[in-house]
């Protein structure tokens, strides 16, 4: 515990990239189980590179029938569980949300992409409504993560979307996951950011800084939004 689930019914929103960036940063401080719930197994394939941090365990081969139990079991064993899912609204996504303590909704910073993110909010609300029948105050904490944004300057599009999310009370991470060759290179080299060859991949340290800022914000949001997690995260 806690379980952090990456959800975006839109394909290519940056779920796998941001989930792996988060997992490798968290592995530097605590044990983490990554559940690769995508039938294409991108994180399992990444792990075959052999550079998996000691603190990280990867579980794949989950189905909609097994994902709930798999997450619940992992959560009893590791301080952090991170779940990556494929970009659909399949039932497996609903089952994973049911086990989540925090949901990250990655989206690219364009208006069209942001509108697609609302499908993820729909899934979160549907889960909340179910629980609220017997626990009226229940809320599942979540936040939107803007991905693949320009590192140098915030685009007008992203600024506008941030404003409209703010107005609509939709929480989003201050940290954006910038467009960086190093995030792509994690998959082509099958390595964590830390061990990417600096002479071949540009701005590795900037990407590490970015991933670390994201990890810190995830942890602080979990502590703020889910007080029952506080002890576990702090310990
Ligand atoms: N921060 C980033 N910097 C550079 N490239 C990125 C970044 N985030 C994602 N990408 C690239 O964008 C594409 C889609 O990213 P990713 O696979 O993480 O999305 P996804 O939401 O997991 O997709 P799917 O729904 O297919 O599982 C990939 O080619 C990935 O390398
Ligand atoms: Mg993916």
UniProtKB/TrEMBL annotation:
It comes from Paraburkholderia haematera. Coiled coil: none annotated. InterPro entries: DNA_Partitioning_ATPase, P-loop_NTPase, VirC1. This is ParA family protein. Gene3D superfamilies: P-loop containing nucleotide triphosphate hydrolases. It holds the Pfam family VirC1. PANTHER family: COBQ_COBB_MIND_PARA NUCLEOTIDE BINDING DOMAIN-CONTAINING PROTEIN, P-LOOP CONTAINING NUCLEOSIDE TRIPHOSPHATE HYDROLASE.
């Amino acid at each position: 515990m806690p379980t952090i689930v990456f959800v975006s019914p839109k394909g290519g929103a940056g779920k796998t990239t941001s989930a792996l960036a988060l997992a490798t940063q968290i592995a530097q401080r605590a044990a983490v189980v990554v559940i690769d719930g995508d039938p294409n197994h991108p994180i399992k394939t990444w792990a075959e590179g052999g550079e998996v941090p000691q603190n990280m365990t990867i579980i794949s081969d989950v189905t909609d029938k097994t994902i709930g139990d798999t997450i619940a079991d992992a959560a009893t064993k590791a301080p952090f569980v991170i779940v990556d899912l494929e970009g659909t609204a399949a039932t497996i996504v609903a089952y994973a949300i049911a086990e989540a303590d925090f949901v990250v909704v990655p989206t690219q910073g364009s208006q069209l992409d942001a509108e697609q993110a609302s499908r993820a909010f729909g899934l979160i609300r549907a889960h909340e409504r179910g629980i609220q029948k017997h626990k009226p105050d229940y809320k599942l904490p979540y936040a939107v993560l803007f991905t693949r944004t320009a590192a140098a300057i915030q685009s007008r599009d992203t600024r506008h979307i941030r404003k409209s999310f703010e107005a609509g009370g939709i929480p989003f991470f201050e940290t954006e996951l910038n467009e960086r060759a190093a995030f792509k290179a994690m998959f082509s080299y099958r390595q964590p950011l830390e061990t990417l060859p600096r002479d071949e991949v540009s701005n590795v340290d900037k990407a590490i800084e970015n991933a670390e800022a994201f990890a810190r914000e995830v942890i602080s949001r979990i502590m703020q939004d889910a007080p029952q997690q506080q002890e576990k995260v702090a310990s």
